[in-house]
Amino acid sequence: MLTAVRNTFGSSVFNTTPATTPPTTAPVVPTKPPEPPKGPAEPSAPRTLPQNASAMGRDEFLKMLVAQLKNQDPLNPMDGKDMAAQLAQFSTVEQLIQMNKTLEGQQSRDGEIIEAIGKLEKTQMSRADELAQLIEGQMAMATVGKTGVTLGNNAFVDREGNGTLVVDTGTRTGIGRVTVTNSKGEVVGTIDTPVAKAGMQSFELGDLFMDPKLPPGKYSFTFSVATDGLQFQAVKTYTAGRITGMKYEKGNPILIIGDSMAVPMSKLTQIRA
Predict the structure, then answer these.
(1) Contacting residues for 148 by C-beta, under 8 A, at least 6 apart
(2) Quick one: which of 271, 261, 260, 258 has its CA closest to 157?
(3) Helices and strands of the chain, counted as H and E runs
(4) Alpha-carbon torsion 170, 176, 180, 185, what sign?
(5) pLDDT tens digit string along 74-84?
(6) Within 13 A of 18's CA, how many CA atoms are on the CB side?
(7) What φ, ψ does residue 205 adopt, rounded to 5°?
(8) Which residues of the chain have pLDDT under 50?
(9) Residue 83: how many other CB atoms lie within 10 Å
């Protein structure tokens, strides 16, 4: 393309330099947006407080913050909000560290408290056992002079020929038969007596064996009942005798019935006046 240009002498000349054509640009092809990740979201790892000695502490954080403030761009200083956020994070971390120390100390104190409670429980249990033994001993002493009843088939006769038989006939009533044996195993007497009621009941040897009376001492006996003329059947028997004393064996009170029969207080089924 030719263009006319006026020179310094006023004449026109033609410029043969071709005109510059504007560059052509390739059309913009829209790119496909990235696809979102597939599958379930993975949980973020839990944050834990640093435990090693080389981790940043309070002093290191403050030094770094001061250095950051000194070396910041004066034309673009740190935003006050950012600084406040950093200080708030530091304060939170500091509180968590102090809380962790407090919990560790509390855990140590809790262990000491639990140990002390355990020792106190042992002491209290020991004292409770001693108190229980003392109370049981006092109760045992209060039974001396009374009649104690326990399982067995013994009877104790005093100087007047008196003694007590205790039996449990269950549902049986009718004719009862008593057979008494001395310490040598010899039968010293057999007698029948009416059984008017059922259940647990007692009979006096002085009323059954009046002539002759039984000599004083320890005896054994059997008791059976015949109902409506049928055969005699043995019933449950008990040992009854006057409590004459008390002794201790391994811290437990033992009652003395008669002259020498030792019975733990816990084995008594009845105490009679």
Answers:
(1) 240, 241, 242, 243, 255, 257, 263, 268, 270, 271, 272
(2) 258
(3) 3, 14
(4) negative
(5) 666 666 666 66
(6) 3
(7) -65, -30
(8) 1-17, 49
(9) 14
